[in-house]
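Risk register update: the risk of archive-format incompatibility is retired. Evidence:
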Amino acid sequence: MSVEKTQQVLELLKQYKQDHIINFMNTLNDEEKELLENQILSIDFNQLTELYDSTKRKCEIKESKIEAIQYFDKQKLGNSKKMQLDDLGERIVSTGKYAVVTMAGGQGSRLEHPGPKGTFRLDVYGKGKYLFEILIDNLKEANKKYGVVIPWYIMTSKENHEETKNFLEKHAYFGYDRNSVILFQQGELPLIDYNGKLLIGKNKLIKLASDGNGGTFTSLRTTGALADMKERGIEWVFIGGVDNVLLKMVDTTLLGLAIEQKVEIASKSIPKANPQEKVGVFCKMNGHPKVIEYTELPEKMAEEVTSDGELKYGESHIMCNLFTIDAVEKISKEPLMYHQAKKKNSYLDETGREIIPQEANAYKFEAFIFDAFPFFDNIAILRGKREEDFAPVKNKEGVDSPKTAKELYEKYWN
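Archived output:
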């Protein structure tokens, strides 16, 4: 262990008022100390300071900057228009220029499932299907229809990478070509407490958490997955979550619409169930596409209706997004804004004693995928139907639970 490195670490910690870690380091042996020092040197403390400062600022949205966004309703396209769009999309898919990314870094903790969310088994047709298996069925069907094998990129987290890999290997990738399945890990950011102090975990290292689904773009680039796509000649990339059992990962109508509209990004929406539904909605802000969170949309605007009685801001974002490969690369080099979430996290104090808080005590920072939309002038939005496109498995009971997803899935496929 070099004296210079230790000195550099101590100066960093003093500069950024993390003296509690200096005290904690005195309780460690040489090997533990070196691991912690290496980790500290990899942290961007400037970024961390900015993130902590952002927790003190209130997000304000000026209503005058927001306007409704154009969308196309899939149900109202008409047969000839739909066929025309499908034809454009099929040309891309059938020539091997299309790839799919599944964001699967989460654990099934809200479902009380002990493992990666994709390994959750949904009780369909009596025998059950894993979430990963349902997605693979979707891809296999597209492969058969278009005579290709679509490359499938799965974003895991440090927490669930090995478990995900072992699960897929154990199930022989549910019959998917394993050379076309590429796993890559998403990035992480440190957790900090309400006073801006880093937390130490039981492993005697600084506690980290995944940097949100907006980190997908940077992770694709830094892990080499983006380079792999380029080598395969990919031109369009679909990015979706692991937990929507009705997700259409290969929707040639959406792809054709993006091509026809000459845009680099596209997304599928479903109409908001009611003004109070807790979903992000599409809009234009300062002339650019944006998804505005339900917590940020003023009540008056949430309830506004158009001349035909529909909600003016009623297109829900359902994590069904499409990007050109150039758009993915562009976004991967741009810093996205981070949102903070308050979380309850245990930690070791400077004497090495574990503290288990009774309530939220720390900030987790994450970027959202839709924070990339404002980098572009336009987006193609295709409105789908809730009963055909959206059956997420998020909560143990109630809305968006295994029970509701099972009902929607079985109804759709029967």
